[in-house]
Amino acid sequence: MDVILISLIPYIIGSAVVPVQIIIGVLLLQSPRQGLLKSSAYVAGMTVTRVLQGLVFGFVFTASGAAAVEGSSGKSLVVSTLLLILGVLLLIAAYKKWRKEEDPDDPPPKWLTTIDSATPFKAFSIGFLLPLIAAKLWVFTLSALATIADAQLGQPASAIAYLLFILLAQSLLLLPILIRILMPARSKSVLDGVSIWLTKNNRPIVIAVSLVFGLLFLYSGVTGLLY
After folding, report:
1. How many domains does the chain have?
2. Which domain, by its residues, includes 21?
3. Which of 217, 173, 179, 178 lies closest to 198 in space, CA to CA?
């Protein structure tokens, strides 16, 4: 289990360090009414989507025998192909952010303008839809599932590994909720600072993360396919 978790670290970090999804969670948490409930519903929506993705595609990867098709690098053809695609997507994202172009993975602007008036159900819907409209989040999740299938852990251990992936991938969404619960008096100033910092530094964070992980995944994918 320790080995598979180490293998999942790049996908966990890539999924977690997405400024827009954190900003949405913090803004929901700071809503004047039912902020804690809205933010929790938002995270619950993302969790449901990822669980459904795991049920469907985990079965597909296992049934297709993806784990059995290995090269000398130890990575399956599916994993290597997904890494290659993810690397290309991330490098494109870094280039678009550098050119100050619109990122197709960013949520519709109207989502951000209606957060204050969002109901818990709408917050759940936003969380449910966000992993479905973001191509990079799709490939992070699929790469994690293919890596788990490639490890041939068996069904119970594979399910535990994927649930740990979900938990850690959403850790930066859960952290503000914990701050709100544990430090209710100080949470507003802390979360205000986090939201302002993320909004201000959204572009350089996305460029740096996309460039580093894009090159890493591109190299890993190409070597996995060639050797």
Report:
1. 1
2. 2-226
3. 173
